[in-house]
Specification:
This protein is 0% helix and 33% strand. It is built from no helices and 24 strands.
């Protein structure tokens, strides 16, 4: 849907050899003969290609041949300050990967999780039982979220600090996002929003990647990138005091928005202002949650009430289609998915 960035990994030193206009030196200078990685020619070639784009590490005048290639959906200049934003587009590189990196795309059935203080407990199935994964992230008072921050087909954990702690000593919300499943330090930290905002995350443009947003009263302020900056999408929907929800209500691959007011759900199919496209009652009680419970690509409503999960497979009122217990009193629910 959007750009992928190819980062070539070169042997860094050319010893005493010089370079011509290409900025690369030969294999004889780096003691690296052309070969297949791990002697398996289904894998990548190493030290076989001398080529240089030149947008990163330009202070290195002379580098050796390419040893591997890394693909990232995050622009390299956001995490490597040596990289410039100069455009050197080459659509041929989109085929420089293995077939194993192209599994069938979703939809993927949503899975339940709970956060207790800073302990995350995730379950693989929509039924009662213990956690299949458990790790720690964040601190007491953080707002937990799970979303597909990289468009990789898996939702990973994040916390937003400052949303639930009032305005004392804090002027912004800080997002701490993990790009990898399980325990570890945040891979991405940035500031967006202000105390009192309600954090949300969604795929606002349909490119497969979830990005940050906040709801301030009834004003939605959404970013198209996970970084600090002004809102890319701004509109009003709902009323102050409503609980915001986000989901793909149509199966289009693009998230819509909505609010829950008591037991009434009011949903729009896109992140735009206007009247609700769907309105129904589901509840009352508990915390509203959203997920693709049936695996058909459409997100539908649910509620979490002190460990009791009540889920509907349709955008309509009535009784829950799925009910089970996972978690306990005081836990905060999260919804995740993976390939």
């Amino acid at each position: 849907g959007t750009s992928r960035y190819y980062m070539d990994c070169h042997t860094a030193s050319c010893g005493g050899c010089g370079c011509g206009a290409s900025g690369t030196c030969g294999n004889e200078c780096v003691n690296c003969a052309c070969h297949c990685e791990l002697d398996n020619c289904n894998l990548w070639k190493t030290c076989c290609t001398r080529f240089r784009y030149g947008q990163c590490n330009q202070h290195l005048q002379c580098i050796g041949p390419i040893t591997c290639r890394v693909v990232t959906c995050v622009p390299p200049w956001e995490w490597d300050s040596t990289c410039t934003t100069t455009d050197a587009r080459d659509d041929a590189t989109r085929g420089h990967d293995g077939a194993c990196l192209h599994p069938p795309l979703g939809p993927y059935r949503a899975r339940p999780g709970v956060v207790r203080t800073n302990t995350w407990m995730l379950r693989n199935t929509l039924d009662a039982g213990g956690p299949n994964q458990q790790f720690t992230l964040g601190a007491a008072g953080d707002t937990p979220l799970m979303a597909d921050w990289l468009g990789a087909g898996v939702a990973t954990a994040a916390v937003v600090r400052g949303a639930r702690q009032g305005t004392i000593g804090r002027s912004t919300l800080t997002w701490h996002i993990r790009h990898i499943e399980g325990p570890g330090l945040p891979d991405l930290v940035f500031e967006y929003g202000q105390p009192g905002d309600i954090p949300v995350a969604g795929d606002w443009v349909g490119n497969g990647t979830h990005t940050a947003g906040v709801v301030r009263g009834n004003q939605w302020l959404l970013r198209n990138r996970n970084s600090a900056g002004p809102a890319d999408i701004t509109f009003t929907f709902g009323e102050p005091g409503d609980i915001p929800v986000v989901g793909d209500w149509t199966g289009s691959g693009r998230d819509g928005i909505g609010v829950v007011r008591g037991s009434t759900w009011l949903l729009r199919d896109t992140a735009t202002p206007g009247p609700p496209d769907h309105q129904f009652d589901f509840g009352p009680g508990g915390i509203p949650i959203v997920g693709d419970w049936s695996g058909n690509g459409v997100d539908t409503p649910g509620r979490f009430d002190n460990g009791n999960w009540m889920l509907s497979n349709s955008l309509g009122g009535g009784t829950a289609d799925i009910q089970f217990t996972f978690g306990s009193h005081g836990d905060r629910p999260v919804v995740w998915r993976r390939r």
